[in-house]
Specification:
Blueprint: E1 24-26, H1 34-40, E2 43-56, E3 63-76, E4 83-89, E5 91-93, E6 96-101, E7 111-118, E8 131-134, E9 141-145, E10 150-152, E11 157-159, H2 161-173, E12 179-180, H3 186-198, E13 204-209, E14 212-215, E15 220-226, E16 234-239, E17 253-255, E18 261-264, E19 268-272, E20 277-285, E21 292-294, E22 300-304, E23 316-318, E24 328-332, H4 334-338, H5 340-354, E25 361-363, E26 378-382, E27 394-402, E28 407-417, E29 429-431, E30 441-443, H6 444-455, E31 471-473, H7 483-498, H8 517-522, E32 527-529, E33 536-540, E34 549-554, E35 559-564, E36 571-575, E37 582-590, E38 593-601
Parallel strand pairs: 4-8, 14-22, 23-28, 24-25, 24-26, 26-28, 29-30
Antiparallel strand pairs: 1-31, 2-3, 2-7, 3-4, 3-12, 5-6, 6-27, 7-8, 7-9, 9-10, 10-11, 13-15, 15-19, 16-17, 16-20, 18-19, 20-21, 27-28, 32-33, 33-36, 34-35, 34-37, 37-38
Helix pairs in contact: 5-6
Length: about 600
């Protein structure tokens, strides 16, 4: 069964799903076959990313990243210079960041085959180099793994780079010859890597703790073992955006930034769990790549939050009061608003978050603005023509601003949906509900809930029972928040309402459609203390609030116990002395309102 993944956005991430009965869709993509990519690309090259920098477009609508790629071979197209530029959406310029999901994100050192077409975006860098865009977004990059001689994109994985993949491209282009631009031998590097790996096994991971953590919130993992070396190497986690593995079951890893490595010695490493980390084993590689080891233990990443990054640092981000009413106002473009079924489906997804976590989002007046741009409009719209790359079902863009520290605020959120399915998967269609999707139908509400989760600043996880799981298939319905979705959203909201960043006004809880304004304000008057707690946890509520019961859950969402509230008292006390040290959540039930708060037991 082919796998696809949802992938998250201007630092935020939006829309993901699977798109055929026998296929999962990755990163809100549907599969574009290799044959279509080869035929539609104006140029196909093998190369490696050697540098990258981000710039605004000339209209100051969006940020793009210019990836300078050293060219090794040309499979299709005329001869070009030894380096070219490949333009991808999103990036960081000064204090402003943008993340677009799904889209291709490249790192320095990424090596493989690029399916390209001519770039049509004018940037402020005024480059004179040949510039291109990836065809079919992230599907247009086939990344090499020279340790096991495989190549993969979000949907396909192949073993034998030169023996299988090269020959497939030759056949589809009708060219037996490959134009050599630079001296680069894939087979020689694979054989060398094999020899080095087989002759050096000095690195050994003995254990790590804790075994359950959260990504993107500076949770620290301590790794113990031997042979790590005195000089910092790399720590890699299963890549949540790829489901942790490719379609052949080969692990796909994502490396923590150097700034996320807290300490490194020959026998112990302490590292912050990055935003993109997913559940699975971890891999430690020594400086220079001389030796590596994979853990026998599995790390569970319960939930994860989005971190904007400039490539050196990862920034904590949060919402604030942008509209003077405690939060954000979203606006539908006229054609989206006119589609009654799509609008109703989106609003159900919208209320799922607003009425559960209390995030302060509201729907404003219909707008005639029909563009994704940094314009202060949090827009909801369908795309126009071929605006979205082939294979992309929808995109969420998150925009961020920072003020000199390592914190950022979400300045704008935009979502665009593909209005039609085309190509080989034209049998697919949106199911707007309220009935559930079956067969070749893609559930619009499930996709919207997931993408709004990215707007909530939640990143992908690997847990098929949760909304923020990296993928969803056609015929699958995932509309209800799970334990990790709720825990992650609650943690975001606790930061939103309790912390002020960059001198911006704090977000307040929403006035959900099922709540009165007075009730939504009262939940701010519930406090949980002390935090951390050792023996007792106190819950103090305003005199106008009556607590019915209080339930405790561990960080994995497992129910521990429930106690009834004392409706005659404004102070409830729970004995937590029997709980092990760690992170927990308390769900407080009040009449028709439930809120959750995080606390720590020492």
């Amino acid at each position: 069964m082919k796998k696809t993944t949802l992938t998250t956005v201007l630092l935020a991430v939006c829309l993901s799903l699977l798109v055929v009965n026998t296929s999962n869709a990755q990163e809100l993509l549907y599969e574009v076959p290799l044959q279509t990519q080869v035929q539609s690309s104006s140029k196909i090259i093998e190369g490696k990313v050697i540098s990258k920098a981000s710039f605004w477009d000339n209209d100051h609508h969006n940020i793009y990243t210019v990836n300078t790629v050293e060219v090794y071979k040309i499979f299709k197209g005329q001869s070009i210079t030894e380096t070219i530029e490949i333009i991808t959406p999103g990036g960081t310029v000064g204090s402003e960041s943008e993340i677009v999901t799904p889209s291709l994100t490249l790192n320095i050192g990424d090596l493989g085959v690029f399916m390209l077409h001519n770039n049509d975006v004018s940037l402020t860098n005024n480059s004179t180099q040949a510039t291109f865009k990836p065809f079919a977004s992230s599907q247009g990059f086939y990344k090499y793994n020279l340790n096991n001689n495989t190549v993969h994109n979000p949907f396909q994985a192949k073993e034998g780079i030169t023996s299988t993949f090269y020959n497939q491209i030759r056949t589809l282009t009708n060219h037996t010859a490959i134009l050599e631009v630079s001296d680069f031998d894939v087979d020689a590097i694979f054989e060398s890597n094999n020899a080095n790996r087989n002759g050096n096994g000095t690195t050994s991971i003995t254990s790590f703790a804790p075994t359950t953590l959260n990504g993107g919130v500076k949770d620290q993992l301590t790794i113990t073992g031997a042979g790590f070396g005195a000089t910092e190497g790399t720590v890699e986690f299963r890549d949540a955006n790829a489901g942790g593995e490719d379609n052949m079951g080969t692990p796909v890893y994502y490396a923590a930034l150097s700034t996320q490595i807290v300490s490194w010695s020959n026998t112990e490493i302490i590292v912050e769990v990055p935003s993109r980390a997913g559940t699975g084993d971890i891999r430690v590689t020594t400086n220079g790549g001389g030796s590596s080891d994979v853990s026998s233990q599995t790390l569970t990443v319960f939930y994860s939050q989005i971190n904007p990054s400039n490539g050196t640092n990862a920034f904590s981000s949060q919402h604030f009061d942008t509209n003077g009413n405690g939060g954000y106002t979203w606006q539908m473009f006229t054609d989206f608003d006119a589609n009654a079924s799509a609008k109703a489906s989106f609003l159900r997804a919208f209320d799922t978050w607003v009425c559960t976590t209390g995030i302060n989002w509201e729907i404003g007046a219909v707008t005639t603005t029909d563009v994704i741009a940094s314009d202060g409009i949090n827009i909801i719209r369908f795309d126009n023509g071929t605006e979205l790359p082939q294979g992309v079902l929808g995109r969420c863009t998150s925009r961020f601003g920072s003020c000199g520290g390592l914190e950022a605020v979400v300045t704008e959120l935009d979502i665009v949906f593909n209005d039609t399915f085309t190509g080989s998967l034209s049998a697919l269609s949106w199911e707007y509900g309220p009935g559930t999707a079956t067969g070749f139908e893609v559930d619009f509400e499930s996709v919207a809930v997931h993408e709004l989760g990215h707007g909530h600043q939640l990143a992908h996880i690997i847990d098929s029972g949760e909304v923020m799981h990296y993928s969803i298939a056609n015929g699958q319905n995932s509309r209800d928040l799970g334990a990790s979705d709720l825990a992650g959203g609650t943690n975001v909201m606790n930061t939103n309402i309790n912390t002020s960043v960059c001198s911006q006004p704090q977000m307040t809880y929403s006035a959900c459609s099922t709540l009165g304004v007075d009730e939504s304000v009262l939940i701010e008057n519930i406090s949980v203390f002390p935090n951390p707690a050792k023996n007792s946890l106190n819950i103090r509520n305003a005199s106008s609030i009556s607590i019915e019961n209080m339930s405790i859950y561990d960080v994995r969402g497992r129910h521990i116990f429930t106690e009834s509230g004392d409706t005659s008292n404004n102070l409830n006390t729970i004995n937590v002395s029997q709980l092990n040290s760690g992170v927990y959540f308390i769900k407080i039930q009040m009449d028709h309102l439930t809120i959750s708060k995080k606390f720590i037991v020492e």
